[in-house]
Specification:
heterodimer; A: 298 residues; alpha/beta; 4-stranded antiparallel β-sheet; B: mainly alpha; two-stranded antiparallel sheet; 72% helix
Chain lengths: 298, 459
């Protein structure tokens, strides 16, 4: 997790970012960086602020407070050269219904100085994207694949995908994520993708941002997150109090001599502390990302 | 019953915009009546204010009805409403009740203010007649809007063609009686009958479509070349179509269909039915030609505004350049639509017989209205009913309405302020459009899928 001042080489750098629409705070006090070569999964419930955050950091929308920079440039006034280094797949595709897939690809190729025909031809074959039909008759999954192709053709250094796999079937999703890993293999290419499908994120991302009600509640390595959030079961000799007052407790349930808690910032030394404090046997259970996500949103 | 009452109420008060319109209509109504009372001692020709205020009031009332008719169709198309038992019956009865309440309120207000003398030869203003005229007029207007906005272009053209002959028979509207029956009663009966017929279809129809959904489908586009220049790619992205010429041609074709059908109806009616009984009046057909560029340019500018978001990243251009490109496209569309359509209107004004209004004044109003419509289009980032455009349009209609009633040369001269005012409004709108575009926050205007029937979501 980098949320200090090391923003010199950062691909994305957000500082105390806030966004207010119609008097309602959509994003609050977000400070975080992304280093080159990272695959970052942005995780949050519907309406948590994922798409708003992406809109602000790509310059679609000005921040209400704080700053957002991409490749060192202010997001709201990105120069053409910087925009050329970004590929974006929006949640709702912005394809032109009256064109065919081939026409749409030709248009995008005309807009960019660099266009990797070889990569696009290979992905068209592998993803079986129909190019000869009007976009208005394509299925949701086919549209999403086409929108992703458009974002990849100019070999972007930063690829931002907003719910990229939500319309794909399980087979296509797995294939898509595999491709995403391949694409991100370059040490200079960075991928940020938002999702609410936790298994996708677990399969691909090296870092995770968890956003809740417009606030970033976690930003860091996926493995660190999994290690730092645990479920603790206490089995005491005497009945435990209803309120255990333990630092970092996300949730707690007590039942007589037994208590179950989910704790953040876990360190192995805390096991001994808890055993001594409550005179209890303490068992630790590591959680999957989905459980962590659910607990953080409980 | 609760559902019916709630439906009736929401057609006038659901949104803040509707409530403001309602308040504006009421204030204008009172102002028009007060102005008429103050002006009664003066010669009518030099006091256009009662007519101007009355025109604006009629405009506001028309907008309220238009909005509620649009809302009615929009709500009917929702799948969630489709699943509610008897929802459409409740909506239909609610809409009828809403018009009934509005007519009663309008007539009651008229009586309360004390304007009980009928304005001869109209029954308007009399205790007996005002309510019937309001109810019949409102119901007929709502039905016409339902038919014109869907379910198919052919049906909307046919509906207009059926209404068009009424434009010829202006003499019918200026009589207190039609076929021996008081005109207000005829209007009320016609409105109720039209509503009953529409409601019968509406209740048994499988699922009504959203307004104008049949219009936006469009035809298959011609194949675009696979090698395109950067500039043409930007244009295609903004327009969503392969060329500006093509979009303009679509607009011209649609409006010319209306124009030709109405012309044919007028000529046919005159030749076959009423050969020598009344003077020919082709104003309605010419008005369609004159308003076509106004609406067409507004539509194309709106399409460009909504297409701008998808160019922000892939074109690499700044907001200023995107605005300049979209504005240039809109001005080009104004030339492509305006030159042939205004030109044709000018020729028809010269050669076709018409009566009642100064058509050159109307043409000047429409020409000066078009730049304002263009900038309002550029401000329309949401694919929604463009109420500011309707408001501007109503200002122009009020000017035309006033022109009909002002008779003195001095009054007529004064009215030429209106085109100048419209140009001034365009300049203000241009400044607003530039300001909005230079700092546009697309997050507030998230793309709504063109394929979605309606997006009621607000960000």
């Amino acid at each position: 997790m980098n949320n200090g001042d090391a923003s010199g080489s950062a691909v994305i750098s957000l500082r105390e970012l806030g966004k207010v629409i119609g008097g309602k705070a959509i994003l609050s006090n977000i400070s975080v960086d992304i280093e080159p070569g990272s695959i970052v999964g942005l995780l949050g419930k519907n309406g948590a602020g994922k798409t708003s955050l992406i809109d602000v950091l790509l310059g679609f929308s000005p921040p209400s407070s704080g700053s957002s920079r991409v490749f060192g440039e202010s997001s709201f006034n990105l120069p053409a050269a910087t925009k050329g280094r970004i590929g974006f797949v929006p949640q709702q595709d912005e394809l032109l219904d009256s064109l065919t897939g081939a026409q749409q690809l030709a248009l995008n190729a005309a807009l960019h100085p660099v266009w990797d025909e070889g990569l696009i031809a290979r992905l068209i074959r592998e993803w079986e994207v129909p190019l000869d039909r009007k976009i208005q008759v394509l299925s949701g999954g086919e549209r999403q694949k086409l929108a992703t192709l458009l974002a990849l053709g100019h070999e972007p250094d930063l690829l931002v995908l907003d719910e990229p796999a939500s319309s794909l079937d399980p087979v296509a999703r797995r294939q898509f994520l595999r491709e995403l890993l391949e694409i991100a293999e370059s040490p200079t290419r960075t991928v940020l993708f938002s999702t609410h499908i936790v298994s996708d994120l677990e399969r691909v991302a090296s870092k995770v941002w968890i956003i809740r009600d417009g606030r970033l509640v976690w930003a860091g390595d996926l493995d660190t997150l999994k290690e730092s959030v645990v479920r603790v079961t206490l089995l005491a000799r005497d009945p435990v109090p209803a309120n255990l007052s333990i630092d970092g407790a996300v949730s707690q349930r007590t039942d007589g001599r037994r208590a179950q808690l989910v704790l953040t910032d876990w360190r192995d030394a805390r096991q001994r502390e808890l055993a001594d404090r409550f005179g209890a046997d303490v068992t630790i259970e590591r959680l999957g990302l989905e459980e962590i996500f659910l607990e953080l949103h409980a | 019953m609760n559902g019916v009452l709630r439906s009736a109420l929401q057609f006038y008060t659901r949104t803040r915009r509707q409530r403001w319109l309602l308040l504006a209509a009421l204030l204008l109504f009172v102002a028009a009546l007060v102005a008429a009372r103050l002006a009664c001692r003066c010669p009518r020709s030099v006091t256009p204010w009662p007519f101007l205020l009355g025109g604006l009031c009629a405009g506001a009332a028309t907008m309220i009805t238009l909005y509620s008719a649009w809302d009615f169709r929009r709500i009917s198309a929702l799948r969630t409403v489709f699943l509610i038992p008897h929802s459409r019956l409740q909506l239909a009865v609610g809409m009828f009740l809403a018009q009934l309440i509005a007519a009663a309120a309008g007539a009651g207000l008229m009586m309360l203010v004390g304007h009980a003398q009928p304005l001869s030869p109209l029954a308007w203003g009399s205790p007996r007649g005002t309510f019937e005229m309001l109810l019949g007029g409102a119901l007929s207007f709502v039905v016409l809007l339902q038919v014109v906005t869907g379910p198919s272009r052919i049906l909307s053209v046919v509906a207009l063609a059926l209404v068009a002959p009424l434009g010829v028979r202006v003499d019918l509207f200026m009589r207190p009686e039609i076929f021996g029956i008081p005109k207000a009663d005829v209007l009320a009966l016609a409105g109720i009958l039209a509503w009953l017929l529409f409601a019968a279809w509406y209740v048994i129809a499988w699922r009504p479509t959203a307004p104008l959904s049949a219009w936006s489908r469009g035809r298959e586009s011609a194949a675009a070349p696979l090698q395109v220049s950067r500039q043409s790619a930007i244009r295609v992205y903004l327009l969503g179509q392969t060329s500006l010429l093509r979009v303009s041609r679509q607009q011209i074709t649609t409006w010319m269909i209306y124009h030709v059908v109405i012309l044919a109806m007028l000529v046919g009616t005159q030749m076959l039915i009423a050969r020598h009984n009344f003077p020919a009046n082709y104003s309605m057909a010419i008005f369609i030609l004159m308003y076509a560029p106004v609406v067409g340019v507004n539509t194309i500018a709106g399409i460009a505004a909504r297409g701008s978001r998808r160019l922000w990243l892939c074109s690499g251009e700044t907001r200023k350049v995107l605005y300049a490109t979209a504005a240039r496209l809109a001005w080009q569309s104004m030339a492509l639509l305006g030159i042939p359509l205004f030109g044709l209107a000018l020729i028809e004004i010269r050669f076709l017989p018409h009566a009642g209004s100064d058509m050159l004044f109307s043409l000047a109003i429409c020409i000066t209205l078009t730049p304002g419509a263009l900038y309002l289009g550029l401000l329309n980032f949401r694919r929604r009913l463009n109420l500011p455009f309707l408001a501007l349009y109503m200002v122009a209609v009020a000017a035309l309405f006033a022109e009909l009633f002002v008779e003195s040369p001095r009054g007529k001269q004064l009215l030429w302020i209106a085109p100048v005012a419209l140009v001034a409004i365009s300049c203000v709108l241009r400044a607003l459009a530039r300001r909005r575009w230079y700092g546009i926050d697309w997050l507030q205007f998230r793309a709504e899928r063109e394929t979605a029937p309606f997006a009621l979501r607000r960000v």
